[in-house]
Amino acid sequence: MNAVAKLLPSSAPKPSAFVVRFALMAVALLLIAPMVLSDFRLSLLAKFLCFAILAIGIGLAWGQGGMLVLGQGLFFGLGGYCMGMHMKIVDAGPGQLPDILTFSGQHESLPLLWVPFSSAWFAIPMAILLPMAIAALLGAAIFRQRIRGAYFAILSQALAGAFVIVLVGNQALTGGTNGLTNFQTFFGLSVTSPSDQRILYFVVAVVLLVVFLATRELALGRYGRLLLAVRDDEDRVRFLGYDPTRVKLVAYVVAAGLAGLAGALFVPVVGIISPAMLGIVPSVEMVIWVALGGRTALAWAAAGAVIVNTAKTNISEQFPSTWLYMQGLLFVVVILFLPKGIAGAVENLRALAARRQPPPAISRLTRRRPRAPAAAEESV
Amino acid sequence: MTELLKIRDLVVAFDAFHAIDGLDLTLEEHEVRFVIGPNGAGKTTLIDSITNLVRPTAGSILFAGEELLGKSEYAIVRTGIGRTFQKPSVFDELTVLENVDIAASFRLPFRSLLRRRKGISDEVAQTLGSVNLTDQSESPAGSLSHGQKQWLEVAMVLVQRPRLLLLDEPVAGMTEKERLHTGELVTRIAAEGTTVLVVEHDMDFVRRFAHKVTVMHEGKILTEGSVAEVQSNETVREVYLGRPRDARGAAEALT
Amino acid sequence: MEVILNQLFVGLSIASILLLVALGLTFTFGQMNVINMAHGEFIMAGAYTTYVLQTALGTGFLTLSFGLALPAAFLIAGTLGLILEFLVIRRLYGRPLDTLLVTWGVGLMLQQLARDLFGAQNVNVSAPSFLDGGLTVAGVSLSYSRMFIIGVVLFVVVAIALYMQRTPAGRRMRAVMQNRPLASVSGVRTRVVDRTTFFIGSGLAGVAGVGITLLGPVGPTLGLAYLIDAFLVVIVGGLGQLRGAILAALALGMANSFIEYNTSASIAKAGVFLLIVLFLQWRPQGMVVQQRRGLAS
Ligand SMILES: Nc1ncnc2c1ncn2[C@@H]1O[C@H](COP(=O)(O)OP(=O)(O)O)[C@@H](O)[C@H]1O
Ligand SMILES: [Mg+2]
Fold first, then answer.
1. ipTM score here?
2. Is B45 close to ligand 1, i.e. is its CB under 6 Å away?
């Protein structure tokens, strides 16, 4: 070690602080929530945790990489349908047609598209790999041509829109607007039994924790720094000898894979997957979860998904019309006044507590630049 | 000495306007070349076309015998050419250290980028020291002064150990002391064997640190020579002082 | 042959609506770098304006109410646009992706407002009697209402072209679009130009809304389907380009019409998307491009 290296502290946060926070999170998810929540609430939480997995992907692609992914519903749906098709086939039993396929009366035997999904060994990997493959194709075509910003956002959104139209238009194969529903079992678990739903909750929670840790490693690695650099100034990165297409592609493909994984878990937890959950409107909604939590902080992005969906469930049950106004207002208020989301607010409060009063220089800085520099590392 | 960079008949056209208009330039290995010329002469465009930021209309650019035209920006960097920008461009949201570190990692296989950085390599530490930024290494690059940003940018290219370094107005906006330091840095880089092309506006700086100077005007080479030769050149004076004479004709007369 | 002519006509009428919606988007995007997702709700506002006028004046005055709806929708949607610009968008200049999200939120609120005012169900707007029926030329049936829409769009395009080429205000608009700082130091009041552009662009969405009432029922989420397609027109046409928008709207309208005829609506959507991505491989900046200086400037 030379003098300089000794002089510098390691730039990662003190590992102990993170370990404590992570342990608290794990305890809350794996011990406290199952103890205090009713079966019904716990299964709702499981659904929100699926969304949280997807939100981590958006946090990586949008928060760290600056790619506004407006079509994540597409990947979520692909994951969901892959898993749903498999569960339908298993439910129907060997040699039988799933009910969805008998409704149309068009199919004598399992249609070709469905056949490989009889095998879990095909269906589960496909739930993740198919979204990744499509993201890779679209991303490569778009990023290579230096199409970015709003152009990319609109194109990703349009693809999600087209996907929904294809799903609805091929009712005999996909169940149309009703989607896939009426599931019975999931790998021996009964989808309708409360105790089996508890097991599913643990599966989802553990997957979320693992996904969070892995994505955080990615974001804290050199790759993560490079991704921030690309977000900051993609063209400059080229002149350091990197191909930004590749850098962006990795984040986009990972985000798509996580959305697919989330969709695959969502189906057994919720028991339905339908086009209404995947189109343009729900896809934009996914982004506001992350914006509210904090786009540059992965853990807060995940939390944002849980917070918004909890609020949505509680408010829209009682006042459906109010919720829609609130959701619209959420977009406006968060983006205008809380560009770094709750994470940013917490950070400011901490600074406030530390110095008694907010340093004017910093608050001015954050107001003008939504993504404030320094704390990027800490907040991941 | 061997030719490192050989530019022939280079033309860069923006619509009807030729920013570079049939330019020839040869750099020997280990040479330090200063390029001067009035505003709009095409100096930045010259660097831009070597690094493929603009696409030349015609001509050829050979680097160590290899044609650069048609290569992508990052591929050109990987053949061993580093550049800075007239407007300092560093990654404001990364720390100074991280800026230099990702620059230093550009030859690592992509897979190993996925891991976290462990400590600081000697090379990165040394480079930070050579531009006096050791104390700032944990600060976000956005918080640096203008001059420090320019140094950081130089550090980011230096740490990549390019064979050819292209500096676009490295001392613009620097204090006198900073200029001196930069000049010494350039001299040292060259002494270590890097070929350097410096585009500069500031004649004091050029007088102090340049040996061989190329003068550009209206997209062409006006003349080349030692500082003294260039300074005593009639046409160069006219171009700089803007006397009403057809500089295009003068350029043709000279080359 | 008849089939081809027929699909050409359908394509042309799709294209004309798309163009009307896309014009506002391409100018606000090209000039101010603002992505206005509430533009779809301005279409809806125009459509409901027609509905309200018709309800107020009664079925005896369909022609009058429809005639009034065109300017009224322009003014109402334009004013909504001005309010949006003043309250929200001017705080977000330089953050295009954030304008996208904020205006999406505004759009959601406007949709809900429409639901509360007019009900969640679609409402029907009757076409004035002079637009009933159509002509049959060489075996192709040309409905009057579609011809009327094409006519309105032709009128608008000519008006916009004249505005941009011939009037001082239009020249200022082009100046700001090409080089904002330069226009600003040359004494152009860019804020005024921006607001004017926003007003006109939003107003055109309202006019499009009036036209859309001729094609089907009116509902709170009417705008969204047109909005995304119109954004694709902007991407394919090239930012802020009148000529590009016209060409792209025609191309997308025709592609939609012909693919749909030969296959199905769902394949047409996916097919058109694929064509767009392929087209962007060839011309990433769209059909008509304006030169701008890149990184080093
Ligand atoms: N992208 C571009 N589009 C149009 N003109 C350009 C572009 N880039 C440079 N120019 C013009 O080319 C000429 C040379 O510019 P530049 O190389 O920046 O000059 P210098 O660096 O010598 O001051 C200038 O007249 C400039 O306006
Ligand atoms: Mg220059």
1. 0.92
2. yes
